[in-house]
Amino acid sequence: MPNRDSNYWVKKLKLEPHPEGGWFKEVYRSKETIDDSALPGRFTGSRNYSTAIYYLLEEGDYSAFHRIQSDELWHFYDGDDLEIIEITPPGVLTKHILGIGTSLKALPQITIAAKSWFAARPLGQYTLTGCTVSPGFDFQDFEMASRQTLLSEFPQHKGIIERLCRE
Known about the structure:
This protein is mainly β. It has helices spanning 6-12, 147-153, 158-163, and strands at 16-17, 23-29, 33-34, 47-48, 51-58, 63-67, 71-79, 82-87, 93-98, 106-107, 109-112, 117-122, 126-134, 143-144.
């Protein structure tokens, strides 16, 4: 078995830098679409049924707070556990642990609800995950958090917001 590290996965999977931090590659986009008339009003235009990516974060990097308009399922593949911090629209903060490591809280799959703000950071050298989005991901549905906006909306979570926002 090859010595797997983050560089191994970046090369093997042909990952590219992601705007929210880390590395990614889209590996699935359903050919069929859902007409916008059948979708909730938060969507503008039709969407693919589902999309999936590989996503990798390395030690010291993080996925900055962002949100999308669909539910997102995270799947653990390799490396160390990943902490995913979710802030729901009412302001409830949950720290999820994605992985199969020693933490009793670790789960190999978790779901982040549509419209929740979320960020992630590896709890070791790297974490390779997969993310499945339905209705499918579209950058029109992606919103990177402004630190000031999140702090004004959720001042009770100041510490984590300051650590995991890029602006």
